[in-house]
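Practice problem: predict the structure.
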Amino acid sequence: MKEPRLSYVQCLDARGLHRMAYWEHGDAANPRVLLCLHGLSRQGRDFDTLAAALAGHYRVVCPDVVGRGQSDWLADPMGYAVPTYVADMVTLLARLNASQLHLVGTSMGGLIGMGLASLAGTPVAKLVINDVGPLIEPAASSRIAGYVGNHMHFASERAAADHLREISAGFGPHTDEQWMALTRPMLRPDPAGGAGAVRLHYDPQIAVPIRAMTPAIVAAATQALWQAYDAIRCPTLLLRGAQSDLLSAQTAQAMTQRGPRARLVEFEGVGHAPMLSAPDQVAAVASFLLED
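Answer:
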């Protein structure tokens, strides 16, 4: 698999500027742009398999959302929120000169995609929302809050891979080779831990806004997300892991009946969230994006 190109764009925040990294696959001159947005504690290399399958059709762009991967960390952790991420994507699209694009968003990336697609004059012409909706199940929120932001250090790459596999069981079955390919971009050297030691790639402070949530904030955010979803007008595909604890079957069905009336595809044997690397998952996304 050909390595993607790494570039950076400067974005504005409440304290100044931060650099957002993004990975590119395919012809940089291709006017057809596919923007792929990852989940809360992940990074843009999650989409390597999907990007390889679609790079002949698109300029595939996979950012490391601020605070993750090769991107800067924010000085104010309360900036780790969807409005900041949507603003960063608007800046990125200006850099790419993308007047129209297709978008795939997994989990947090799906919320960013919903926000961007709901804007008046949005460039999003097709949207894939991967295992997330306006209503996030409380049990999943608690599960995620239990591990995100912990200062995780590991004696070896293998120890890190084993831990990530344990907390990411919902991703579905992967071979050891596939799992290591997903794991390596998640790790950084940890000199304090000795030879071979590693740490996770993201700013632990991304957890601060999550842990500051109150029932009132959650209720207001859910209402705002439904309003955003109902404002989407482009064709929309909703993917769901059949065993997802984050996107309930009831919420998924509601999303097929309101707003853009998403087309729903479910994957058996997968929870939260499909990694879009299995052949059937790649095929579902490609078929939707490439159809007339």
